[in-house]
Amino acid sequence: MAFQYRKNHHKKTKTRPIKFKTLIRYIKYFLSFVLLVFFLCLHKEIVDGHDHQHDDLSTDHNLSSSFITKGSTTPAETETSLTTNNKVSRSYSWMEADTLQQTCPMSLNEMVISMAKYSVPHGSSAWTKMKRILSQAKYYHVPDDKRKNNIFSDSTKRIMEILEGYGLVRIKNETIDSDIVTNNDTILVEYSIFHHDVHPVHCIGSKCHTIPRISLQTEQVKALHWAPDFIRSCDSSPNCILWDFSKINYDWAKMSLNASESIMIVPLLFHDRLESMYPSGGEDELLPHHNRTLDISFFGLITKRRKEFHQRFIQGINKTLSPYKVQYRKLMFVGPQVEAYKRSKICLVLHAYLPDSAGEYHRISDFKRFGCIPVMESFSDIETQRILAACAGIVFADYENLADTVVSVLNRVNQTNASVLRRNQLEVDRWWREGIQWSSFLETVLGPSTIPRRESSI
User: Fold this and answer.
1) Could you tell me which residues come within 8 angstroms of residue 228 by beta carbon, excluding any fewer than 6 positions away?
2) Which pLDDT tens digit goes with each residue over 294-303?
């Protein structure tokens, strides 16, 4: 039978174009799937304490393996002595004492007042300049900061509380015109140092250098190459005063720049930006240490120094902290951050750039009300450090001993009676909860304003 060749005469079918509405529907399905995966991963990270974003610390290594740990097994290690400013010291008394009240010398408010009075002793040149500028002013201008749960938006609220407690009234102009004579009774308040500029940012006109102003300093000044010019510029103005958060920064400006007559310590970085997330149901919301599922948590900018700590003590050859459940990562959304603090036995703090730095008060403030035990790299303000150790239960150590100190504290947590740990945990929470009376801060430090205030609003 002969093979017969037949042509295919299939009809050409037309390709039907996808309707626009159908395309939109597919895109919505895809985005919904992506969001679902994202939230599932986020939830798993919170529950397990793992960190899958290894790019936070290194682009060469997957760090997740160092976070997926063996649990809370405690290595059989001899308890290590803690070191503070290179001096070996015993720092576990707060765990061993029946109550922290036996060792705590003052309230948080009293500590803040003593820091301020250290910088402006009554009758000194600095005290006189502060008193003159703040007493002569009737109004103040501070730019709005509408960011939610931000450290500096909370600081702005405290500044308003401080100045209004001293009788000043806020005005809400966008800028201050220094050439208008009547503005001499208005104080401009701003975070000038953020702008790397010695001149007031929210000021216009030819006399910005001499208008009354408060420059807020919230940085580690020794790490900023432009800080000396900024501080000298303010100090050279007859009407500029600088509010710094730290005694270390104050002492440096006094010794290195001879600029202390324009500086007052106002520790605004003891903030309450997470106040809306504090335990609202009373002490029962604070998990006891023995019930916490995360051993160590650290949140902060991952600088070179902090990256090296992670590589050396968690990921690298030393691996002092690798047997523990650790969350060590850059700052993130405050919700997951707070959840980690609530479940952590230890909240770790180490300096970003230099060992001889001011205290990281803003980091302490983030976790102060969530019940973890702070282990913090030592800083040079010995008196404040002593009070925070005695009253806030903070354990201090230098950089080289920080990881061993964390291990020792975890050992002590496992060995200490639960009722003692709980009693001290609640006493620390009460110490923080009493807070700072910012509205009476200036009157307590400087005395009453020398010029009667007129009740007015603009």
Assistant:
1) 256, 257
2) 999 999 989 9
